[in-house]
Design a protein that fits this description.
single chain, mainly alpha, 10 helices, about 60% helix, globular
């Protein structure tokens, strides 16, 4: 994660009373937002879980996808979320610990059968994920838990970008989003690119680039905070996560 990404978070803002909403709703199967919440958690965490399995078990794509599905079935059907609380530590640590236990049991049992998720749980195939998203990201693989955190960081940023794209489509600012991604997120370390270069690439005036970047940075900062806040339980934890994971003081 580049420093440029972390600089977009901006300054502090009041912590909303609905923090950790998707986790709380996912703890009660009778809650109106239960299904929506578990699917949201599934979408946020499938990547870190899937890549953790691939790195540790060295399985192929399809086997790793099956194990990912099985883990989430167990995670939701066995009520793992009911044991989660703000006093139990960070949620990502809870997921990682649950995954380690799940894989240990799978290994001991040496189960060969393929399990299917219960009806209502989104499958990886149904999520419209491109095939190359299942390829292992480049990087060291000697520390699975560190890589789990790195994959989780990537998932948070990708979710914020997805939300930004949605906002851009609604107000006709797709080009602004593309300018932001190209200039602030996708540039390789040391790569130089000017606003003029970007304007030529996107076939728009330079003013569209400058104004669009200003809008997109503000919207991304808002979306990013919202994504991170959904998975922390307090303002204090938000600041700690932002500093530890993204090197940003709020």
């Amino acid at each position: 994660m580049s420093k440029k990404e972390t600089s977009l978070m901006g300054g502090p803002a009041p912590f909303p009373p609905t923090s950790w909403t998707i986790i709380r709703h996912g703890q009660d199967s009778r809650a109106p937002a239960y299904r929506e919440s578990i699917e949201a958690l599934y979408k946020k965490y499938w990547g870190p879980v899937y890549f953790y399995i691939r790195r540790n078990w060295k399985h192929d794509v399809e086997t790793s996808k099956d194990l990912t599905q099985s883990f989430f079935v167990a995670f939701f059907e066995k009520g793992f979320l009911k044991g989660v609380g703000a006093d139990k530590g960070r949620f990502r640590n809870f997921v990682c610990a649950a995954l380690r236990n799940f894989l240990a049991k799978e290994k001991r049992a040496a189960r060969a059968e393929k399990r299917s998720p219960r009806e209502g749980l989104v499958s990886l195939d149904d999520m419209g994920i491109e095939g190359d998203r299942f390829d292992l990201p480049a990087g060291d693989e000697d520390d699975p838990e560190r890589r789990f955190v790195e994959d989780w960081k990537r998932a948070i940023v990708e979710a914020a970008i997805e939300e930004l794209r949605s906002r851009g489509r609604k107000v006709g600012k797709d080009v602004a989003v593309e300018a932001f991604v190209a200039y602030d997120l996708d540039r390789a370390p040391g790569e130089k690119i000017t606003y003029e270069d970007l304007a030529r690439r996107l076939h728009v005036p330079v003013t569209h680039v400058t104004n669009g970047l200003h809008w997109a940075r503000g919207e991304f900062r808002d979306a990013f905070r919202a994504e991170l806040r959904e998975l922390v339980s307090s303002e204090e934890e938000l600041r700690a996560e932002a500093l530890e994971l993204f090197g940003m003081k709020l």
